Request: fold
Amino acid sequence: MTEEREFGEAVRAGTPTWLIMAIVLLGALSGISFGLAWSASNQARQAQEVLGTEIRTVKEGFAKDSGALQQRLAKTEEVNTGLQGELSLVTKRLRITQGELKKARQEAAQAREENAKQIAAMDSSIKGELATKASAEEVKAVSSEVTVVRGDLDTTRKDFQMARSELGTLIARNHDEIDQLRRLGEREYIEFSVQGKGKPQKVGNITVELRGTNPKNHQFTLALVVADLRVEKRNRTINEPIFFYTQGARQPLELVINQVSKNKVLGYLSIPKINQTTSGN
Reply:
């Protein structure tokens, strides 16, 4: 109370008002500055704590990554060590293989050279023996062997010949064998096919009409018209010759069916050339 009284007396005594206001303003500014400083210090401390936490996190992550990296490096070094050992082993084996290959090539070349020498020696020996031992008896023996071989070839040729009919003609069973008979030049051959029942077809100087087929049993029935004479051949079999004569012919014509299917036959007509010559005369 005394101080307030004194202050009031001092004011009343004539202290300037502006001074009092300046003192109050300075006090206020000092309080604000202290508050700001305390707040800044608080924020700095918090920032330092956050920064420290982040630094610790980074250090821990780096330590983990560094450990994993070291483990990978150790594993890589282990793998490299193993690969180097295998490479060294392969290199050694390759050197051994190359040496063996070189040796084998040398041995093969030597064997070829020795074989060539032996063959040349045998050739010279055989030529010398043939030159010194050739005689009339040996030539005769060779001629006999040639005769035997020719006989064997003739026998083989006969074995490969086609079947013959009761009149001695060769019976072709397909187009290739028909061509073989053509090359013999003894007869003319006309190949034909008849399809459909009751449809007469002209083949050379005769007419052929299909009357029926039995593919299961390879049989057929044909009607032939020769010089206005109609003849029916029933239940004939494939590759079975059908012989008939035309007017003034000395040798018969021969008709052979090679294939039978449903309502279709395939075959050929064989005409002796002597008949054609006689007809021409």
The two ends are 183 Å apart (CA to CA). Residues 277-281 have pLDDT under 50 and may be disordered. Strands lie at 187-195, 201-203, 206-214, 219-226, 229-237, 242-244, 253-261, 264-272. Residues 34 and 250 are 155 Å apart (CA to CA).
